């Protein structure tokens, strides 16, 4: 459990990824973003953008960097969560990196789910083109009218009629559903309202072009529609899909979530830390390159301490996330879920703070388009809600902690020894 | 100094402003913003927007709410800073309010400066149409290539040649310069590089259409160009203006800043607190209207304490800003500048936190277009740089504090009495 | 409500208090504390200490500084809470000041209660010697076996038998009960267990020498017994007092609390701020008097910002407490209780932080006997529990805030205007 | 570097330590502390205390738990820093544990130094009885009159005269020097004022009974003299020791510090975390055992989140300290010093906060003698100064970080790729 070292076997892969980002993604980023800013039509790519992405993909494939996140279909072997975490950290440093390697969210989670619980037909139809990077996908969970922090609230219904699931409801923040390449959604629905609370939900495949699927428009995050991929607001108005589109069977929605959420959260967290590391670099760079009142900015006031605190936080977060990844490898997703919650509750909140400190050290430039800090901040701020708001994870952790205390005679006895009167 | 009550005389004005916001601005806001989102061309108004603004102005004028921020030209009397602060608090609750009353930044500061130090010709040409709300104006201070926190760094030069000032340099974050109605800028320039440090700068009137004034484009704040008004990036390339466009004479740039910055900062701060108050309302409203895990959201976890802390912070900030306004009234801008710095260092930072807490209580909706919280957050975050970053104000305060200590025999004696060994 | 200025009438009193502290208390402090450190027997004064205190009292009386906190018995007039707050601020700067003026807690609260609701006999017997400074008193409220944050939990019982109240129960943290001069306690007891929740408690006068009152020993605060006054742990074992020792009648315990707690909390808070002000002085003094790495300590790292933040916090707290005092004067204790809770929830927590920052700037000396910072810290830390823990006050504030929101149609309407979807 | 697992070989030792603490130390603690509270004479043990300690030592020895922190004298092998860190964590949970195993500070550091650089005579005379637990020792470094954060300031002088070092100066916070068993001090002195800055200091052995060594009394920490061991204030007034008492030669004082400080800081940090873990247990225990307002205290307000945040912080700190220990094992003390500084800057500050939260959840009991929380708090607060204040460690970390940035072309290039304008 405490060996957090990357495996020797995975090390060359990490090095290839680092080289790919440095040699391919980093030089392409500025141009890709420049093109995007001039985009006229929102939910398509600007001319030239898709070519940049496709070129990066070709380079990645030719370097053997493709779908490495997936277990080998035949041997069942694959990258451990721990090894993947090291790679995800690097991916966090450049926003093009993930997609160029075909390992963007939510595709990775969707592919994993299809790989694990999909039928052969489902795999042929959706997994194959996803693995080839030909299409993209979405995951529709959150609903606007209920507190999404309590997943039992989910109310989009799916009713079986004549061999078809008839879906009605409303979802929002469906990330990636605006991408013109997006073809398929996995949708969390309530199929069994009379079952026990955690068996009422199912997950179901819904093609984007299904009649009755109405994309109302994007949810803007801090005012951004994040075109072309977007975070869409979708209504299901008697949308019908074949009975066999259900994944793994009725009532298994929560079980599937558990499959996908652990690794996804770890990936998110490690990318977040990669972003914080980048923010630290920007902070130091700025602090060294400007002067005021006769001294370098980094030498003014609390700035050196700000750098130190960022360094400490990043290192501590990194170790905690590696530990959570290791826990998933050793204990399995279910047993490791407290560790995942610890990472998820700790990381985005603190990355927000580090990026915010980096902004402050830049002066007004730090909130402008001349750095990527605002985008980085917004992304991290969003992650404090994605896959469960911080508060839910804190609750999970505290509940486990009190249960552990209650079931440990040793801890209780020690407390009694320590407390003269209680 | 400690009487922070609004004057009886000003009370009816406040009530009229409150009514104007409630009856006119609040109902217009949603439509104004909806129109803006669909704007095709960036730096113009969307069809219908200007009409909404003009209509609000007409209503304001007919209610006698026009240019009340200015001292009476003949009697010299006007609203005290303290009275104005109460009004600014209300203005912070609706982003249309200021403009509808012709008291938006930077116009107010510019009008005040013109009123106080402008020549009759300058007043006729620029102050009059500003007072009528026919044109708008900008204030060009910050430069991209130097640490703007140290105003002595400002390097845009103005050289007198043949009765004209020839201006060369680069400015950015020139708020309002994108507004199609903006006609005039006050520009901070270095005219006297050999004078003593605080006498090198001057302020000068530069019409927007002066040849050599090149608007490179907007600085985006968290990715937003804030069209139509924008925060422009401008190059002065041998821009020439008549000798008499200088304000108050060569080398008086810092003096003029002192005139404008005190009240401006107080207005900003009170509007910020008004925004925080609105965020608190939104927080409570959301907390009461959703349920999770069988309880209202406001009753979960730390949410009640978050509400309480927001309430306390808002009240404390409000009192501090009122005190700073009162200090300006009693002591004058110069003597009161420490109080202004206290307000400026305290308020935007904490308003950011309160708004951020409100976001968190909303779940993902809190960072979407379904509330104004993201815009509110961005505005407050920006204010941590505007008119001097937090760090500069903290430095000003601490320096004053140590000087006060050093010059007080009583305080030093008391410390000696308290410290057995020092 | 917003006029926070001290009355002209009270100003000479403030000046006299300041002079008394500077000329009498400050010079006496070091010697008083030195004597105390060498005390052999804990719950008595060290030889010489009482003489110092008595001498200070004589000086105070001769300066007309005696019992000024009380309303005039005949005219009913007295110092307003606002005026008193200004004085309390000064009292916070020297721990001998209060007692020398006969206005230490809990005597002030006890005297106020006796003055307001005592019978002529009760006044003659207990109020008179208290007013003369001949005896001291205690207030017994908190109990060790229940969560004292919920006052309804209080379980010490008083049962009427043959014209006597028979008291049984256990109290702790009874401040001042260790003082050899302490003669009388006001005890909160449950007399009417069947009444509605807020009518079950009464307050009752119990002489310290009543048989059945067993002082088990002091509660140590951070290990200190705070001799000679102490925070005693007391058991009531069939302690009997005459029927007429009840104050104001059965079931009025909470009403009496309301009388005393408002002003008491304000006094505590203002003294806390006075202590924070002193900590700021110490911080600056130390920062200016030592050097490291070639610079004054105050100029290293974040120290100047720490000074600034302390200054801002102190000023903001001061204004908030003055406002709470003013609210009590204008609205009465009951209506003003939210303001009192705001002060109480804000002040001790932040004073702890300021004092802690002052410690840090002193290096190890800051936690040693060479400054008073540790005592100051402990006192403030204790206040986060006294008269209700922070959490209870936050709850009171948030509850009031949500009720205010729920009952304001204007606020709700404005939120609806601002929220596109809710 | 990333394998943070305890070695298999050391695991049985850890288990024995855990058992020793649980079976021997925990049951003895309450009695030991009770005896100490009744101690009459300060700088001796209370009757019975030494017997408890000696009994624990006998039990430890018989379990093979003795001096395990030291490398084997013959093989040079010993416990790795990483393995020791796991054990130190457990030692932090009971204040008697360290001493019972003969591994208290500053003895461990002193023994390590003697083992590594002592002459055979020095070892025979001082190391042997220390290893046997017969005597104790002190380390005299900090001086009251200079900023100890800058070690170059140290000014106690040692001048060689007639084969003797004549020592003059003043030291304070000499921990353990009050223990009646303390016989020897290692003293940091300036021997070579004309050498380059880091070669001016030496360390020298000074027996406690040397004439001219005057113990002025204890420095009180938060008012506590921490008798019997104490933190003494000592004047060296022409104290003379033989020439050969110098350690490792003139001018090597800083080199010796480097030997001792790394491991010592790691041990401190791990014990701190052990204490925080204990505080978390106390917090949960209290939260579960009291009720207010109809709910368990742990279920009120932010308490569950407080528990969660404590859990996360403890786990993150633990991993960071293990990493630092591992870095010392792999890289050596010198290369690993940045990691040690990270641990030292992070841990005591956050442990203070966790313990403070635990106090708050206890109500007033939390600051009383009925829990050990106040002692725990004071210990952690002290550690924010010991072995360098937080600020010095932050400075070391930030300086290393900017140097790493400046010497990495890759990081600089990536920043340039990311920053459109700089």
Plain-language structure description:
Chain A is of the alpha+beta class and 422 residues long. The first copy, chain A, has three domains: 8-131, Butyryl-Coa Dehydrogenase, subunit A, domain 1 (Orthogonal Bundle); 136-247, Butyryl-CoA Dehydrogenase, subunit A, domain 2 (Beta Barrel), CATH 2.40.110; 254-409, Up-down Bundle (Butyryl-CoA Dehydrogenase, subunit A, domain 3), CATH 1.20.140. Chain A has helices at 11-37, 49-62, 81-91, 97-100, 107-117, 120-131, 253-289, 303-335, 337-362, 373-383, 390-406, 409-418, and strands at residues 136-140, 157-161, 164-175, 182-190, 201-207, 213-218, 231-242, 291-292, 295-296. In chain A, α5 (107-117) runs antiparallel to α6 (120-131), α7 packs antiparallel against α8 (303-335) and α7 runs antiparallel to α10 (373-383). Chain A starts with 10 loop residues before the first helix and ends with a helix. The model of chain A has no long low-confidence stretch (mean pLDDT 92).
- Helix and strand element order of chain A: HHHHHHEEEEEEEHEEHHHHH
Per CATH, the architecture of the largest domain in chain A is Up-down Bundle
CATH class of the largest domain in chain A: Mainly Alpha
Provide the CATH superfamily of the largest domain in chain A.
Butyryl-CoA Dehydrogenase, subunit A, domain 3
Helix content of chain A: 40-55%
Strand order of the largest sheet of chain A: 2-3-7-6
> Could you say which structural class the secondary elements and strand pairing of chain A correspond to?
alpha+beta
Percentage of residues in strands of chain A: 5-15%
Domains of chain A (count): 3
Number of strands of chain A: 9
Distance between the termini of chain A: 36 Å
- Report the radius of gyration of chain A as a whole number of Å: 23 Å
Oligomer: homotetramer
Q: According to CATH, what is the topology of the largest domain in chain A?
A: Butyryl-CoA Dehydrogenase, subunit A, domain 3
Question: What characteristic shape of chain A results from the CA principal axes?
Answer: globular
* Residue-averaged pLDDT of chain A: 92
Biggest interface between protein chains, with counts per chain? A-D, 68 and 68 residues
Instruction: Extract low-pLDDT stretches of chain A.
Output: none
Number of contiguous helices of chain A: 12
* Largest β-sheet summary of chain A: 4 strands, antiparallel
């Amino acid at each position: 459990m405490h060996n957090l070292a990357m495996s020797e076997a995975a090390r060359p892969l990490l090095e290839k990824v680092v080289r790919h980002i440095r040699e391919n993604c980093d030089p392409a980023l500025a141009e890709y973003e420049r093109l995007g800013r001039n985009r006229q039509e929102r939910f398509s790519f600007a001319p030239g953008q898709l070519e940049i992405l496709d070129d990066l993909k070709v380079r990645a494939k030719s370097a053997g960097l493709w779908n490495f996140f997936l277990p080998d279909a035949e041997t069942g072997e694959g990258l451990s969560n721990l090894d993947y975490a090291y790679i995800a950290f690097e991916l966090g440093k450049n926003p093009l990196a993930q997609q160029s390697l075909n390992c963007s969210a939510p595709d990775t989670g969707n592919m994993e789910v299809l790989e694990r619980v999909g039928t052969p037909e489902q795999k042929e139809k959706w997994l194959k083109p996803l693995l080839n990077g030909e299409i993209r996908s979405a995951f529709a969970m959150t609903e606007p009218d209920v507190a999404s922090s309590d997943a039992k609230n989910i109310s989009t219904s799916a009713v079986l009629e004549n061999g078809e699931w008839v879906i009605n409801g409303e979802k929002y923040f469906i990330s990636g559903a605006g991408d013109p390449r997006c073809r398929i959604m996995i949708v969390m629905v309530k199929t069994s309202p009379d079952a026990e609370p955690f068996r009422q939900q199912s997950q179901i495949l819904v093609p984007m072009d299904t009649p009755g699927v109405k994309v109302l428009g994007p949810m803007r995050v801090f005012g951004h529609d994040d075109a072309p991929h977007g975070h869409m607001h979708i209504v299901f108005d008697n949308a019908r899909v074949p009975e066999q589109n259900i994944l793994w069977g009725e009532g298994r929605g929560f079980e599937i979530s558990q499959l996908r959420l652990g690794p996804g959260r770890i990936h998110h967290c490690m990318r977040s830390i990669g972003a914080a590391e980048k923010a630290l670099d920007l902070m130091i760079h700025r602090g060294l390159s400007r002067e005021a009142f006769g001294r370098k900015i980094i030498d003014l006031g609390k700035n050196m301490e700000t750098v130190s605190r960022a360094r400490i936080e990043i290192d501590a977060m990194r170790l905690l996330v590696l530990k959570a990844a290791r826990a998933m490898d050793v204990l399995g997703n279910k047993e490791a879920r407290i560790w995942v919650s610890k990472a998820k509750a700790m990381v985005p909140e603190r990355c927000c703070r580090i990026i915010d400190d980096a902004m402050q050290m830049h002066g007004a430039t730090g909130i402008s388009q001349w750095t990527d800090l605002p985008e980085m901040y917004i992304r991290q701020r969003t992650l404090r809600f994605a896959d469960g708001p911080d508060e839910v994870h804190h609750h999970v952790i505290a509940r486990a902690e009190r249960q552990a205390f209650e079931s440990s005679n040793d801890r209780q006895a020690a407390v009694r020894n320590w407390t003269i009167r209680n």
